[in-house]
């Protein structure tokens, strides 16, 4: 080492007491060799012996050897010679730790609370004496380790401490030490430190900021005086959100983005609609005044702070389309919906690096910490089937959850944002009363997202000037907080004074800015100057063809025999040398025989052929579920696995030449977030068959909020069409309460105004035609399918190959035997698996006067088809509805009126099924079988002995 370097590092000998400091330097060297001084770089390079990295234990051994006087030159020689001061080296190590500790924990004492009521206790580790430093060291110079771009400079401890506090304890509290990837962490540290030190906005930017804050405050005050007492969930106290979102839009466009999808709950939504997205103030005022013609309304409509909006905005990089998602009062449930919409838009644009479409989610602090769907959405963020390239999360941190203001009542973590650490998302806590600090973290967050394609969180710490809504009185439960808020100047007022003091603007200019904004509101003009209205581009979807379709519009769902042969060959042809598992090989071999019409067609083959036909006709397919690739019941096998290696092959991917036309995704173990994601995808892409499949149908209740708030009512509330299909395995096979029922009754209870379809197909051909009908019609409504379990391999539940080239989906299947209406004593109506139980029992007991009719579509109920069938049995007195589910569940109570209305005065409708029960099914198999036998007996009006029936059934099967 040169004499100059020896002098430079005279305070850093390689004594054992300095191991921590030297270890820190070595860590920096491993992460970025240029981040350490040249002398240290040369030294560490020598230790590494030319390798890219070295385990720490050999390094520690080498350092220890040098410290004991080993035969090495450079720094070790200086240490061995005893020319360096031991105490000084210990102090340098302490300063190195001080710098590291401030970067790790400085956020804990940062000035991020505008109200000053947040409890901020200085950790002992940030105190000088804890690190072995004291006031006497304040004028001593120490090596800075490249802090905030200081390079290899030495600074006085007092200056180092001041710089650390300025960076890490100012208006921004940064948390990125939990980011494990060194490249990301070093990038964040460098950008953050350099940015805070050099933070300086020019006059134009400051005036723009003031104008944005004026708009944010102006709309709230305008509405407060014009519409006294009406709910609007104002943004007052968090006005910095408006320039933040505007900045994200402008900078995203400048970075090349073409679309942004925003999801947010109530607070500030009206403000965002007017000041960011350009919704007409005149239209907003009409909504406040309730000027709506009921005769022109379709559906229920929704309150103004739930509504979505779309607009194109002008940015330095070109026009950017902005969509604010519609969402209900269920707080964070919109998160996965936004992600699904973003994924669909990225797919449409071929945005493989996920830079063209950006999701932004605006959260409330209490909901962000408390709602499980937030965690589920984070868990999805980096998975293959759901990745969107990183979401920018903004938490409007009002420091209060409705009336819960103490952190220990609202969460079990220090910050509401701590949940984001599960995916190592960097987090920036920022004081909402410092709009320039807010703008800095906004730009940094976007830059991080675009560079690393990962989530990032901005915790906008602010307050709520009014209560939960404008009619609420918050001081009743938060007297201290609201006494502080009453005396607290608004963000705009504080920033205006700051600019006046700096000579950027005078008081008259501030007043004129306010008057101009109010004038634009009075004239009903769109407020944002970058607003362009709806222009659209080649990727804009026209939904008009789907708006006037009817569920019973005729459509041809067949495939020609030639096409069936062509597609069936593609789905059964494997690459050379591809070795299948024995059981799977048998399934593929059976499919080859089905394609050759040698054996009847099963459900797996029919479903696969339905997808193949749609793909061939230009539609895309996306199937998502916890076992969808293979199929929970080992029937689908859309993804084949080579048993000799890890190779996978998806035959359906080779039907179409379009990239990504078919996707089958084994999802994370989530119902709520994944179903929400698929809903968002389906509402964005009408030409993709989007399917969410429950592992068991029962599990859909984990996503009940999505079903209630979006699937069943999204069109009625917001006019949002959606063709999402739910596959819910349903059927009573004695598997207990949690694996029997997909809660059919709940879906039927939600059915009205032709909002969705509920089907229970009983044959493979029915499944085939139903799937194809969902896309070939212009009808884009959710389809709820009670899919089978045991029927997947039931010998009677099969179809012939020719049925793919003939027929259609039948909403009702009449009696298929030779029982003529004139010889019928009783008609049994049913759906699903129980039909086959009835059919077998009828055969075994020689019942020849009971007709079995299957209702395959329960909603919209096929009234005319049903009436026509009942008319054939006008002389039959007993009409029975038979179901496996308990009486208070299943379809009985939801369709009884439909079944009754076509009967004549001489006919009586009876129920045959399980008695009402609290649980969906028995967990005792023997009891299940007794109940099943009883309901079949009641439906057929027979009495059978279990043993005799079993023997007779076996004999009948043999005779076949």
Automatic annotation (TrEMBL):
What organism, scientifically named, is this protein from? Answer: Woeseia oceani
For biological process, the GO terms are: glycolytic process; tricarboxylic acid cycle
Which PANTHER family is this protein grouped with? 2-OXOADIPATE DEHYDROGENASE COMPLEX COMPONENT E1, 2-OXOGLUTARATE DEHYDROGENASE
Keyword Membrane attached: no
Q: Name the enzyme group at the top EC level.
A: oxidoreductase
* Keyword Oxidoreductase attributed: yes
Q: Which domain of life is it from?
A: Bacteria
Q: How does it assemble?
A: Homodimer. Part of the 2-oxoglutarate dehydrogenase (OGDH) complex composed of E1 (2-oxoglutarate dehydrogenase), E2 (dihydrolipoamide succinyltransferase) and E3 (dihydrolipoamide dehydrogenase); the complex contains multiple copies of the three enzymatic components (E1, E2 and E3).
Domain annotation Transketolase-like pyrimidine-binding: ranges: 601-794
Report the protein name in the record: 2-oxoglutarate dehydrogenase E1 component
Q: Which cofactor does it need?
A: thiamine diphosphate
Task: Provide the reaction this enzyme catalyses.
Answer: N(6)-[(R)-lipoyl]-L-lysyl-[protein] + 2-oxoglutarate + H(+) = N(6)-[(R)-S(8)-succinyldihydrolipoyl]-L-lysyl-[protein] + CO2
Q: Which InterPro entries match?
A: 2-oxogl_dehyd_N, 2oxoglutarate_DH_E1, DH_E1, KGD_C_sf, ODO-1/KGD_C, THDP-binding, Transketolase-like_Pyr-bd
* Function, as annotated: E1 component of the 2-oxoglutarate dehydrogenase (OGDH) complex which catalyzes the decarboxylation of 2-oxoglutarate, the first step in the conversion of 2-oxoglutarate to succinyl-CoA and CO(2).
User: What sections of the sequence does the record tag as coiled-coil?
Assistant: none
Where is the organism placed in the taxonomic lineage, from the top? Bacteria, Pseudomonadati, Pseudomonadota, Gammaproteobacteria, Woeseiales
- Could you say which protein family the record assigns here? Belongs to the alpha-ketoglutarate dehydrogenase family.
This entry's Gene Ontology molecular function terms read:
oxoglutarate dehydrogenase (succinyl-transferring) activity; thiamine pyrophosphate binding
Q: Which Pfam families match?
A: 2-oxogl_dehyd_N, E1_dh, OxoGdeHyase_C, Transket_pyr
Q: What is its EC number?
A: 1.2.4.2
Q: Which CDD domains match?
A: TPP_E1_OGDC_like
Q: Keywords in UniProt for this one?
A: Glycolysis, Oxidoreductase, Thiamine pyrophosphate
């Amino acid at each position: 080492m040169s004499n100059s370097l020896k002098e430079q590092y005279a305070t850093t000998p390689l004594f054992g007491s300095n191991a921590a400091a030297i270890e820190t330097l070595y860590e920096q060297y491993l992460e970025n060799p240029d981040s350490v001084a040249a002398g240290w770089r040369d030294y560490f390079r020598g230790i590494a012996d030319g390798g890219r990295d070295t385990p720490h234990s050999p390094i520690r051994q080498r350092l220890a050897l040098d410290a004991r006087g080993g035969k090495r030159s450079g720094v070790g020689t200086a240490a061995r010679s005893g020319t360096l001061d031991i105490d000084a080296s210990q102090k340098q190590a302490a300063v190195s730790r001080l710098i590291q500790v401030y970067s790790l924990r400085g956020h804990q004492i940062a000035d991020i609370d505008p109200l000053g009521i947040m409890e901020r206790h200085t950790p002992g580790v940030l105190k000088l004496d804890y690190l072995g430093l004291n006031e006497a060291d304040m004028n001593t110079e120490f090596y800075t380790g490249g802090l905030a771009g200081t390079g290899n400079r030495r600074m006085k401890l007092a200056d180092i401490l001041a710089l650390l506090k300025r960076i890490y304890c100012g208006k921004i509290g940064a948390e990125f030490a939990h980011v494990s990837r060194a490249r990301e962490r070093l990038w964040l540290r460098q950008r953050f430190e350099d940015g805070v030190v050099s933070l300086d906005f020019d006059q134009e930017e400051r005036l723009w900021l003031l104008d944005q804050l004026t708009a944010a405050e102006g709309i709230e005050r305008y509405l407060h005086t014009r519409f006294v007492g009406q709910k609007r969930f104002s943004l007052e106290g968090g006005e910095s959100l408006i320039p933040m979102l505007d900045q994200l839009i402008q900078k995203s466009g400048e970075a090349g983005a073409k679309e942004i999808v925003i999801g947010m709950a109530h607070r500030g939504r009206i403000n965002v609609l007017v000041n960011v997205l350009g919704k007409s103030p005149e239209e907003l005022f009409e909504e406040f005044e309730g000027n709506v013609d009921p005769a022109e309304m379709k559906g229920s409509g929704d309150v103004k702070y739930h509504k979505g909006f779309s607009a194109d905005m002008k940015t330095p990089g070109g026009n950017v389309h902005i969509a604010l998602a519609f969402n209900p009062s269920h707080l964070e449930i919109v998160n996965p919906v936004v992600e699904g919409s973003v994924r669909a838009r990225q797919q449409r644009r071929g945005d493989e690096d996920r830079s063209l479409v950006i999701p932004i989610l605006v959260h409330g602090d209490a909901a962000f910490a408390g709602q499980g769907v937030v965690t589920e959405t984070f868990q999805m963020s980096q998975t293959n089937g759901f990745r969107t390239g990183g979401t920018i999360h903004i938490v409007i941190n009002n420091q209060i959850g409705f009336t819960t203001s103490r952190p220990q009542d609202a969460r079990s973590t220090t910050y509401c944002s701590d949940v984001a650490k599960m995916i190592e998302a960097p987090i920036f806590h920022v004081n909402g009363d410092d709009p320039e600090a807010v703008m800095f973290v906004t730009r940094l967050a976007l830059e991080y997202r675009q560079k690393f394609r990962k989530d990032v969180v901005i915790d906008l710490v602010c307050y709520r000037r009014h209560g939960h809504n404008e009619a609420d009185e918050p001081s009743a439960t938060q007297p201290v907080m609201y006494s502080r808020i009453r005396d607290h100047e608004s963000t705009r007022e504080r920033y205006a004074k700051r600019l006046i003091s700096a000579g950027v603007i005078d008081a008259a200019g501030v007043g004129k800015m306010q008057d101009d904004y109010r004038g634009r509101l009075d004239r009903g003009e769109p407020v944002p100057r970058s607003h362009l209205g709806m222009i659209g581009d080649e990727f804009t979807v026209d939904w008009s063809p789907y708006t006037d379709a009817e569920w019973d519009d005729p459509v041809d769902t067949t495939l020609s025999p030639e096409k069936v042969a062509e597609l069936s060959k593609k789905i059964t042809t494997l690459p050379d040398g591809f070795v299948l598992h024995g059981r799977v090989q048998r399934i593929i071999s059976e499919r080859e025989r089905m394609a050759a019409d040698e054996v009847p067609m099963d459900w797996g083959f029919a479903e696969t052929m339905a997808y193949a036909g749609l793909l061939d006709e230009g539609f895309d397919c996306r199937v998502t579920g916890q076992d969808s690739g293979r199929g929970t019941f080992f029937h689908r096998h859309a993804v084949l696995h080579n048993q000799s290696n890890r190779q996978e092959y998806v035959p359906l991917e080779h039907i179409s030449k379009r990239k990504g036309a078919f996707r089958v995704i084994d999802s994370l173990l989530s119902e709520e977030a994944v179903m929400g994601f698929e809903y968002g995808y389906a509402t964005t892409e009408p030409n993709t068959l989007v399917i969410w499949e429950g592992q068991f149908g029962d599990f859909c209740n984990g996503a009940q909020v999505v079903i209630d708030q979006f699937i069943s009512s999204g069109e009625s509330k917001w006019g949002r069409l959606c063709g999402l299909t739910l596959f819910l395995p349903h059927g009573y096979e004695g598997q207990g309460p949690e694996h029997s029922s997909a809660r059919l009754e709940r879906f039927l209870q939600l059915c009205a105004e032709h909002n969705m379809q509920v089907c229970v197909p009983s044959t493979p051909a029915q499944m085939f035609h139903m799937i194809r009908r969902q896309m070939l019609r212009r009808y884009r409504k959710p389809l709820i399918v009670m899919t089978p379990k045991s029927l997947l391999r039931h010998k009677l539940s099969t179809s012939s190959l020719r049925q793919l080239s003939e027929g259609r989906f039948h909403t009702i299947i009449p009696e298929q035997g030779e029982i003529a209406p004139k010889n019928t004593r009783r008609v049994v109506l049913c759906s699903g698996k129980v039909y086959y139980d009835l059919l077998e029992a009828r055969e075994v007991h020689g019942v020849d006067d009971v007709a079995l009719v299957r209702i395959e579509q329960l909603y919209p109920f096929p009234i005319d088809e049903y009436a026509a069938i009942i008319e054939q049995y006008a002389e039959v007195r007993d009409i029975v509805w038979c179901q496996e589910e308990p009486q208070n569940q299943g379809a009985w109570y939801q369709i009884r009126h439909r079944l009754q209305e076509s009967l004549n005065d001489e006919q009586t409708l009876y129920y045959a099924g399980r008695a009402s029960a609290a649980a969906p099914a028995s967990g005792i198999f023997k009891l299940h079988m007794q109940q099943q036998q009883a309901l079949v007996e009641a439906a057929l009006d027979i009495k059978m002995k279990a043993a005799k029936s079993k023997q007779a059934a076996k004999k009948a099967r043999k005779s076949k």
